[in-house]
Amino acid sequence: MTIEILEVRSRRDLEDWIRFPLAHYRGDANFVPPLLREEREFFSPEKNPGFRVAEVRLLLARREGRTVGRVLGLLNRLETEKLGFRRGRFGWFESADDPAIARALLAELEAGFRARGCREMTGPHGFSDLDPEGLLVEGFAALPTIAGSYNKPYYPRLLEGCGFVKEVDYLETRFRLPEETPALIRRMEERAAPAARADGLRLLTGLNKRGIRTWAGPFWEVLEEAFAPLYGVTPLSAEQKRFYERKYFPYLDPRFVQLVVDRANRLQGFFLGLPSLSLAFQKARGRLLPLGWLAVARAFRRFDTVDFYFAGVRPGANPRKVLPLMALGMWHSLRAAGVSFIETNRELETNTLIVGIWSRFEVINRRRTRIFRKPLS
Description:
Blueprint: E1 3-7, H1 11-24, H2 36-42, E2 54-63, E3 66-76, H3 77-83, E4 87-95, H4 99-115, E5 120-123, E6 135-138, H5 155-161, E7 165-176, H6 183-198, E8 202-203, H7 209-213, H8 216-227, H9 238-248, E9 257-261, E10 267-275, H10 278-284, H11 292-301, E11 305-313, H12 319-336, E12 341-344, E13 347-348, H13 352-359, E14 362-375
Helix pairs in contact: 6-12, 10-11
């Protein structure tokens, strides 16, 4: 049966592209559906400024008139400027369990990337590292965070069959928060925190959502400086930063936002967490209306899990003094909220310091996601 590859050009095609995962994962207990309203905005060239810094293609695979796969390909101009060469990115890959479908989708992107002079093709990526990235290769029996990756277990085999190999792996860890104060936290309170305060560092307290927004500019400054050397991190335009602020800041819970400043009130580090919304998003089934918003609102009031998202320290600041203040602030907030479990978002497996810290706790589950690479030159 012939597989037809179509480029998304109409609203109807885009709606089909966005909705395909809802049918593809129907009945899967660990699939967390995204909110359709947010997906329509994110994949709109008029609304998402990522389309203005990248050449983007959305492809559908159809067989006998039925959608059986999808993928997005992009060539990010800002990434090209950073790397000094062209890298073709692919993301949001979904396919039925048929190698022919995966080959048809990825070969179409590959031909385009070769024509544009790309040295390699890597993914799954988004427009930036703030988007979903990585293909799940271990830990399929666990529920991801709303920003985590999830896919069918056969997906790695499909990519490998198309000539892709491992580039880097990320780890996501779920662990139990101990009831007793860990020795590491006690040492921070007794030694590291007093030394940090003596240096003029302090943890901001009494934050609310409006107060958090006033730190948006310094947050982006520290994030970009701290994350720039990491794999796959792309620079962001000013428009993209505002777009991500509108997308993510409304979900921030001030209790789990830890900001450290110096004597000059200059931001030196940030640590962001969020009550787990995975179950709420499952209950919403992709829609906030009519009752999906109730599930999300309840998730902010009653939860036993907090997802850790980002932590960064300004280059040049002393992480041995900044990190303890943020960790202590988060520890006390978690204990006050009665949190039992932590979910970490993706961290490079080579970040042995942080992965080792999480391993000191009672690990419940560890998920591994992978970026794949195929050389084109």
